[in-house]
Amino acid sequence: MSGTSNLLNWILWMPMLGALGVLLIPKAKENAIRFWALANTAITMVLTAKLWMGFDNSIAGMQEAFTVKIPWIKQFNIFYHLGVDGISLPMILLTSVILFICILSSWTVKKQIKGYFALILFLQSTIYGVFFSLDFFLFYVYWEVMLIPMFFLIGIWGGENREYAAVKFFLYTFFGSILMLVGMVALYHATGKGVDSFDLLALKASADEFIKMKVSLFGTEVAFDKLFFMFMFIGFAIKVPVFPFHTWLPHAHVQAPTAISVILAGVLLKMGTYGFLRIAFPIFPGAAVYFSNFIAILGLINIIYGAFCAMAQTDVKKLIAYSSVSHMGFVMIGMAAMTSQGLNGAVLQMFNHGTSAAMMFLLIGILYERSHHRWIVRPDGSKGFGGLYTQLPVFSIVFIIGMFAAMGLPGLSGFISEALIFFGIYQKFTTMTVLALLGLLIGAAYLLWMFKRMFFGDVVEECKSYTDMNAREIFYMMPLCVAVILFGIWPSPILDIMKASVNSLVTLLANYQ
Amino acid sequence: MDYTISTIAPIVLFPFFAFAINAFLARKATKVAVFISCAAIALSSVWAIRIFKDFIFGNYATDHYVHKVFTWFDLNGAGLEFNVDMGIYIDNMTAIMLLMVTVVATLIHIFSTYYMKDDMNYGRNGRFFTYMSLFTSAMLGLVLSDNLFSVFIFWELMGFCSYSLIGHYYEKEKAGDANVKAFMTTRVGDVFFLLGILAIWTNIGSASFVDIYASIADGSFASHTALGIPLATFAGLAIFMGTIGKSAQFPLQVWLPDAMNGPTPCSALIHAATMVAGGVYLSLRIYPILDLGGLTTLVAYIGGITAFGAATIALIQTDFKAVLAYSTISQLGYMVLGVGVGSYNAAFMHLITHAIFKACLFLSAGSVIHSLHDHHTHEHVQEMPRMGGLRHKMKFTWFAMWCCTLAIAGIPFFSGFVSKDRILGDALIMALENKAMIVPALLGFGGALLTAFYMCRMMFLAFHGEPRDKDLYDHTHEEKFSWNRNLPLLILAVFTLGVWFSGSLTGQKLLKVASPEGKLEWFSTLVAKPEVSKFTSYKREAWGTVDTREAVQVAPSHYDPDHGMTEEEAHHVHHVHHIGAIVSIIIAFSGVFIAFMMYIKKSWNPGWWVTTFSGWYRALQNKYYMDDLYIKGVIGKGLLPLNNFLAWLDMGIYDRYIVDGWAKVNRGFFTFAKWFDDLWVDTVMVDGTGASVRLFNVILRTLQSGKIQFYFIMIIVVLAGYILAL
């Protein structure tokens, strides 16, 4: 039952074609490789825009017009099944824009350009695969395969401690994946290995059966859905990352090259929360409701603990990494509320954090290219940066936009999603709302304090040689600046895409409250 | 004028577009940017004057309002609904506010073209005007807001503008400290404000003032609770925390004096005339909630403590702008005190009169500081000990500043007297009825004495007597009248006269110059506590519809000097008000007199006070140690060590031992497995098997030697064995 359009196939395989193309270009022609990759992401972006144009906002479920379903491994009822709905489209849009920007920001990469761009394009394809998959097995394959380019991108092009970070990232995610694999196999057996054993939509439809089922674990009877919800939970929570599975993130972020940090913060973290919305919540709604308090508490810990840890950092990239932990906490607590405002706010926050976190990491990357260090305060107590406002006026303005968007200043995008999340959680977890507001306070404190230490005062001697943003850098920052301002003033374009799909999930979950 | 969103929105949009355009022009085409900002705010003023004319001079009643709503965004889909509405709400209070904000802002913009002209970095004054435009736009948006949520949005935007303008001199480390402090301190209040909005929105389904009033009127508001506390108390307190932060009330007043690091015109606009007044404006709008929640006593105490406490700190300041900063805090305290004692009208009037005289004071201060240029350090001088005798050098500034000083000191015939006296009169009435209110009333009267004193002290020190720094004095240019320096000051000075607000010279009908109907008592007639009962029949109008106010228009209220009280009550109130007026007049003149004796006649020595009350003096110098408490205590001893501890716990312990510990555990396991594999599996079992085979081989090989004799011996041995066994 394939839809009328092959657009999803094109979007999914276009970067893969691009990656193969990169491999065919001779190593010496560096600019050809760069422009090829850029053109490729640009084409993908246009295709994504076309998808957006053809998207029907009023449909709550999958957009039939775009669905692709082809048998893949018939013996195990595994399908190559792609689809798009209001929850995945914002992520797709985000991925396309972020990857395009990442190619531009990687212009200055010197080492093994061919391999680098091939891997980034390969990575892009696997990201689309995760967001498009409607077959659990396919989803799992993309989820796992994505680790390979990430492992090499961090491990080869990363900072001084890159191998440690890459291995840690790989093993940590892999550990979660294994639990997910167990859950997946359990579901396969639970559905009687029927035609749609791995089909996410069919699994969602048989959610009620899973609630009734029991499994024997070390001799005790355990509810099937609760047990495997927890398995899925850990698998996705590691990706988000939810406390206490968050410690791979600061390492990976700090060691990864700029573009990879941007992809990591901008897109990959959202795959964790996307996993909840696409798999864990719809298939195990009963368990999701059962554990919602628990998820909310973890989200709250993320918000506050992440913010506190961020404030103590002296490495600016690590500070932003912890701020991602804090901001993803808002997504978690918003999802746990399971109200219309909470869930819509959470999905919007996934999108908005994607843009604002990408901005912050790009800006830090731009700065790093000039300074070759990231110390706000050096270990010996001296200032790492100072007076950047005087030295880099344009950079400072863009930095202010990104910083205040991350902080949730009204008029910029982060505010609307955070406000919606707060409306959502107040109805369910009033006390936790009060505590989460503390995160809002500390969230402003660590960013402003960082800004003050780096940008105000006299220009530090070594900063005097820094040059302001060049045309290429301004060019690739512009789309993000426009996005955070535009969606801050007028959030409807993104909200309109998602609200039907998200609300139907809310209604589904409400049946199990 | 038809009141629709599209006819009202320009008042906010002119400065907003000026901001948007200037964001690109500020660095390259500074002069154009400055012009655009000024033109935009002037256009907004025209709009504001039209609205003011309609509402105040038009045929309108006390209770007339215009309310238009549109949906900003919604979450409607798949059967669920949630609309986020924005809208405008204009009543007499809004109309007065709009006029005040636009006119004061226009004058400050004009003054800024003088003050910021030779800002050292050329592109920078474009930046200044860009933020001023955004700021004005946000303030106007706040004033026009029909709901708490959009108030919050504009409120935060103003916080951002304030942050940027305090940090205008970004090469100064101090500016960075000051703007972080300002933003974070107000953010503490803002976070509570947001909580209050959440509580109200969740419980009554809307954050619109009109819906809130309606639900208070029909009793449903009182039936809700939040965290076990009545909603009115919970939300009222939370939102009032916002006021405490933004309007620099005790205990969050610490940011405002530091905010003086920004350029002086921005201090005039943001930290004196408008933004800080936004907090008071909000508390007036939510007055019915505060009243219902039983919070008025608390509000009065906060206001009283702030009014008096800040005034005491102002007594010993030597920095010109610092005196004004503390006087702002103190005057905001009076407004909040007014809200607390139910003096709705007078609190709002004080907001307006204060905005005018305080803007003028700050601009005058700017005029003074800008002229005093130390040619050794190349910095402007703000220290009063280095001033003195300046009246000979700058006559216009001196004149304007005296008008404002008399106004703020509460001298009759000036605006501050009209408004402050009414607040104090109402405080006195409350104190007579309710013993708990005696303290705020006393603090209010005490503060009035101090205000008169420290303001006159400032004037005497700066403008009168002999020049104390002769060198500086000689290098100061004679003030020549210029339109962008002096005209704004003089226009504002004219409006420090009380007659504009009271319609009579004293506000007590003693010397009434108005017509018999009291029509010129417009301020007290047209601004009144919102009568919530009127809102029960309210029906929302949709986006873009033409105003249908004819249908809801109430006949113009007849001026009622007694405000609906019985004759006896009114008599009592007027009696108390008269006593209050006499007391405050005596107090104000005593303040002026003491300052005169100390600093002009020099018969009384201020040093005596310093030595006699040295402990107090130190406490005042350290602003009652509240900065130390917050920065060194709460942040330095609490927050930062906690952060460092958690970060250490996270990376140093949790990640290093627990997470990476798994690797160690695994490595241990591998080592064991390797050892087991090598020794037991490989050596003993695998190799052992081989070895045993080899051993067997050796034995077999030995046995199968091929020697026939040996085989025979073996056979015999075996047979012998059998026989023996049998």
Key descriptive features of the protein:
heterodimer, A: 513 residues, mainly alpha, two-stranded antiparallel ribbon, 22 helices, 73% helix, B: 726 residues, 2 domains, 30 helices
Write the layout of secondary structure elements.
The complex is a heterodimer of chains A (513) and B (726).
Chain A: H1 7-24, H2 30-54, E1 68-73, E2 78-82, H3 88-105, H4 113-132, H5 136-145, H6 147-157, H7 162-190, H8 200-205, H9 207-212, E3 214-217, E4 220-223, H10 224-239, H11 248-255, H12 258-283, H13 285-290, H14 292-312, H15 316-337, H16 340-371, H17 388-391, H18 393-407, H19 413-428, H20 430-455, H21 471-489, H22 492-510
Antiparallel strand pairs in A: 1-2, 3-4
Helix pairs in contact in A: 1-2, 1-4, 2-3, 2-4, 3-4, 3-12, 3-16, 3-21, 4-5, 4-6, 4-12, 5-7, 6-7, 7-10, 7-11, 10-12, 11-12, 11-15, 12-15, 12-16, 14-15, 14-20, 15-16, 15-19, 15-20, 16-18, 16-19, 16-21, 16-22, 18-20, 18-21, 19-20, 19-21
Chain B: H1 5-8, H2 10-25, H3 30-57, E1 66-74, E2 83-90, H4 92-115, H5 122-144, H6 148-166, H7 173-204, H8 209-217, H9 220-223, E3 225-226, E4 229-230, H10 231-246, H11 255-258, H12 264-273, H13 275-285, H14 287-292, H15 296-314, H16 320-340, H17 344-371, E5 373-374, E6 379-380, H18 395-409, H19 415-433, H20 438-463, H21 470-475, H22 487-494, H23 499-502, H24 522-526, H25 549-552, H26 567-599, H27 606-612, H28 614-621, H29 626-703, H30 708-725
Antiparallel strand pairs in B: 1-2, 3-4, 5-6
